[in-house]
């Protein structure tokens, strides 16, 4: 019922604000092997329907993961994921972009498992020039273990937007004018993994992985990448300004999208580094522009 009411509210907002919402283009679902390769524990990845769907498996011996074949400077990246069901405490399912050097850039989705009956926590983070500490955590407005949901990153020279089923849950603006570094000149690969992190993932490490519930399985499909492919040493995109995600309507969220972002902030945010005065007595300069305070 809650999800139905939210859908009605979302439809009303879209009607109220017209068709100005710059929703990303619909992802194109392709087989796993088109864009990705396994990175470790190959025998812990299962393939179905000609590689259009895969499962990552975590047991007491190892987890597993995969990475994109190419490196990218800007673009739209999307994955349909069904999280580990049941008692998933201690497990982390990650989907993220990361560069390859020490002062690395990184854009993270991390899904933190929990004891049966407790909600998943979605943690996002942005690293630029090796600096992170920009964690935000939300509960989702649905059970992410029962069916596939779409998790997407839109990254251009102006902003990074995290989407869940086309709802923006976080925006990180380019605030170079405020002295904040922004990922713009280091190509990044996409990665995903399922691994054991029971030293921190669930209630700060108090809840340990119950290996009697293993194997833990996360399911994937979609594997959409629409980005500016570059060598790992390239520091600019040759098609800058020419791709759909570079255009003016994607340089900011519009009013309807900011309404949806505010809804997530008010209803589902459980941690925001911008409001954590114990860790950060001084508010980070990007927080106000990102609509985080």
From TrEMBL:
Signal peptide region: 1-21
SUPFAM superfamilies this protein is in?
A: Concanavalin A-like lectins/glucanases
Active-site positions on this chain: 106 (nucleophile), 110 (proton donor)
- What's its EC? 2.4.1.207
| One GO term of the biological process aspect | xyloglucan metabolic process
Q: Name one GO cellular component term.
A: plant-type cell wall
UniProt cross-references to InterPro entries, sorted A to Z: Beta-glucanase-like (IPR000757), Beta-glucanase/XTH (IPR044791), ConA-like_dom_sf (IPR013320), GH16_AS (IPR008263), XET_C (IPR010713), XTH (IPR016455)
- Modifications after synthesis and translation: Contains at least one intrachain disulfide bond essential for its enzymatic activity.
Q: What class of enzyme is it?
A: transferase
GO molecular function terms listed in the Swiss-Prot or TrEMBL record:
hydrolase activity, hydrolyzing O-glycosyl compounds; xyloglucan:xyloglucosyl transferase activity
Q: Keyword Ion transport: yes or no?
A: no
Q: Which residues are glycosylated?
A: 114
Instruction: Identify the keywords attached in UniProt to this record, alphabetized.
Output: Apoplast, Cell wall, Cell wall biogenesis/degradation, Disulfide bond, Glycoprotein, Glycosidase, Hydrolase, Secreted, Signal, Transferase
What is the stated purpose of this protein?
A: Catalyzes xyloglucan endohydrolysis (XEH) and/or endotransglycosylation (XET). Cleaves and religates xyloglucan polymers, an essential constituent of the primary cell wall, and thereby participates in cell wall construction of growing tissues.
PANTHER family per record: XYLOGLUCAN ENDOTRANSGLUCOSYLASE/HYDROLASE PROTEIN 8-RELATED
Provide the protein name. Xyloglucan endotransglucosylase/hydrolase
Q: Which organism is it from?
A: Manihot esculenta
